[in-house]
């Protein structure tokens, strides 16, 4: 008999910041578990090498895997008994190089959760809320702040800190972030220094401020992407993916600050004004990202799942994802902008498959009843109110939806098109059309009233379904809305 897997392969943590993962598995056998051999290996084409602390032994049911590159790894363990019978189990592990990632996708509560393997959750104080941001939700600060764990940057030398920010009002010396202990030991990024532009600064009690000033201002009321990096002795400041300032003589690093105890988003070590506005996707990396990587963070996908830029989430995007899986250099299929092509990007594609970028802009269709000749509304309509409609930018058309037909019935704004079948409406913004009841061929036209229905369209900013239908009812082509 083959060995029985009692506890499938597991990884702790399943996502590692430093590439160290504890693996475990347990099997049983009729000749005793102690006679089993556990052999670990890597499946497919991993992003890097994997070294196991122990392998090909009974002791390898507990082993440590060291992943030497960022990406996803599928690991297999084969359990073999004394007779050569075997069983296997697999587990997926990942390495990420960010120390913290605050997606700010919460909808409430006083915790800003860290999506990184370190779980450096931050606490929120004062006036704050969550609402729509650049990527899902964002943290809105109205005088409040987030406090990150002590020592969150104390091990960093080379680093990158990046975020989307949307100041509602920019005050001098307000802070996007300020990590330190007091007014003699800190590093910060302000949207408005005494130059009138953003500044990054770092200092310790024994070394004065070393700064990087931006060459451009940061606007209020719109989203901007900001990033600070340190590579060796060169600090760089980016705005919207473009290098806007550098200092090749930066000798201080976050590690020189020690175990900092006052690490804030939106608050200063000094009695400066609070940051007022929104912060989204605040990330801390343990290395200096390249300019290309920062540009990738600063660019938003035009359509989730559209990796090849043709405005559709289609099969070609899956093939691109498949070819570049685990890549940290070709990031075309990095849909969630975490700087590696991984399974999360495939999930984005699956959720968007079959849709196009135009479906992100939508219309709302309102159908209001009009009275017929005898002041009675046509049956089955009434005032149905706003109904989700179809993508903007598509010419108005009525498509007959039958399994055996896909022909189009032409229609123009403010005209009528009649068919005794369900109709699919595709429409552009701010247009209208009339739908009228018509007799069937075997009915006398004198028996059928011809009241009109007007459908008006108004542009909105909302997510949308793709179809509206008009269904034949009670012997007449009567407009009926299906959600």
Task: Explain the overall architecture.
With 483 residues, the chain is mainly β. The chain is 6% helix and 40% strand. It folds into four domains: 92 residues, Sandwich (Immunoglobulin-like), CATH 2.60.40.10; 201 residues, Jelly Rolls (Sandwich), CATH 2.60.120; 41 residues, Orthogonal Bundle (Type 1 dockerin domain); 118 residues, no CATH class. The strands form six sheets. Strands 9, 12, 13, 15, 20, 21, 22 and 24 form an eight-stranded antiparallel β-sheet that branches. It is globular, with a radius of gyration of 30 Å. It starts with a strand and ends in a 5-residue tail after the last strand.
Name its key features:
single chain; 483 residues; mainly beta; Immunoglobulin-like; Jelly Rolls; Type 1 dockerin domain; 4 domains; eight-stranded antiparallel sheet; globular
Itemize the secondary structure elements and their pairings:
Layout: E1 4-12, E2 15-16, E3 20-28, E4 37-43, E5 50-52, E6 62-67, E7 71-80, E8 86-95, E9 98-102, E10 111-112, E11 122-125, E12 128-132, E13 137-142, E14 145-148, E15 159-169, E16 177-182, E17 185-190, E18 199-203, E19 210-213, E20 224-231, E21 234-239, E22 242-247, E23 262-265, E24 276-285, H1 291-298, H2 315-324, H3 343-352, E25 362-368, E26 385-391, E27 397-400, E28 408-409, E29 423-426, E30 432-436, E31 452-460, E32 469-473, E33 476-478
Parallel strand pairs: 2-8
Antiparallel strand pairs: 1-3, 3-6, 4-7, 5-6, 7-8, 9-24, 10-11, 11-14, 12-13, 13-24, 14-23, 15-20, 15-24, 16-17, 16-23, 17-18, 18-19, 20-21, 21-22, 25-26, 25-31, 27-28, 27-29, 29-32, 30-31, 32-33
């Amino acid at each position: 008999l083959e060995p029985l897997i009692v506890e499938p392969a597991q990884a702790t943590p399943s996502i590692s910041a430093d590439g160290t993962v504890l693996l475990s598995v347990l099997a049983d056998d009729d000749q005793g578990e102690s006679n089993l051999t556990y052999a670990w290996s890597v499946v497919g084409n991993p992003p890097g090498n994997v070294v196991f602390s122990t392998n090909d032994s009974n002791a390898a049911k507990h082993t440590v895997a060291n992943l030497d590159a960022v990406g996803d790894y599928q690991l297999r363990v084969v359990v073999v008994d004394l007779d050569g019978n075997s069983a296997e189990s697999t587990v997926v592990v990942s390495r990420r190089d960010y120390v913290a990632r605050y997606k700010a996708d919460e909808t409430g509560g006083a915790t800003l959760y860290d999506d990184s393997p370190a779980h450096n959750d931050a606490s929120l104080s004062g006036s704050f809320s969550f609402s729509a941001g650049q990527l899902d939700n964002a943290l809105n600060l109205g005088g409040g702040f987030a406090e990150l764990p002590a020592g969150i940057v104390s091990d960093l030398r080379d680093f990158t800190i990046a975020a989307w920010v949307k100041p509602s009002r920019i005050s001098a010396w307000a802070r996007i972030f300020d990590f330190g202990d007091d007014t003699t030991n800190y590093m910060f990024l302000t949207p408005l220094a005494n130059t009138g532009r953003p500044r990054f600064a770092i200092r310790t009690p024994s070394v004065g401020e070393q700064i990087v000033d931006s060459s451009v201002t940061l606007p209020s009321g719109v989203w901007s992407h900001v990033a600070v990096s340190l590579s060796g002795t060169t600090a760089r400041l980016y705005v919207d993916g473009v290098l806007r300032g550098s200092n090749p003589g930066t000798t201080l690093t976050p590690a020189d600050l020690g175990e900092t105890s006052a690490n804030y988003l939106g608050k200063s070590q000094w009695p400066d004004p609070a940051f007022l506005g929104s912060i989204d996707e605040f990330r801390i990396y343990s290395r200096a990202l390249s300019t290309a990587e920062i540009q990738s963070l600063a660019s938003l996908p035009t359509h989730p799942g559209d990796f090849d830029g043709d405005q559709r989430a289609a099969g070609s995007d899956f093939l691109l994802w498949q070819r570049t899986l685990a890549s940290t250099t070709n990031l075309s299929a990095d849909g969630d902008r975490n700087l590696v092509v991984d399974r999360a990007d495939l999930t984005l594609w699956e959720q968007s498959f079959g849709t196009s970028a135009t479906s992100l802009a939508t219309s709302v269709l309102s159908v209001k009843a009009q009275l017929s000749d005898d002041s009675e509304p046509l049956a089955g309509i009434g005032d149905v109110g706003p109904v989700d409609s179809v993508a903007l930018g598509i010419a108005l058309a009525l498509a007959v939806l039958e399994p055996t037909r896909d022909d189009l019935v032409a229609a123009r704004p403010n005209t009528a098109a009649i068919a005794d079948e369900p109709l699919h409406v595709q429409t552009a913004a701010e247009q209208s059309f009339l739908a009228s009841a018509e007799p069937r061929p075997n009915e006398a036209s004198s028996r059928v009233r011809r009241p009109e229905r007007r459908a008006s369209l108004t542009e909105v900013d909302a997510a949308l379904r793709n179809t509206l239908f008009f269904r034949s009812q009670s012997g007449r082509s009567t407009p009926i809305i299906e959600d």
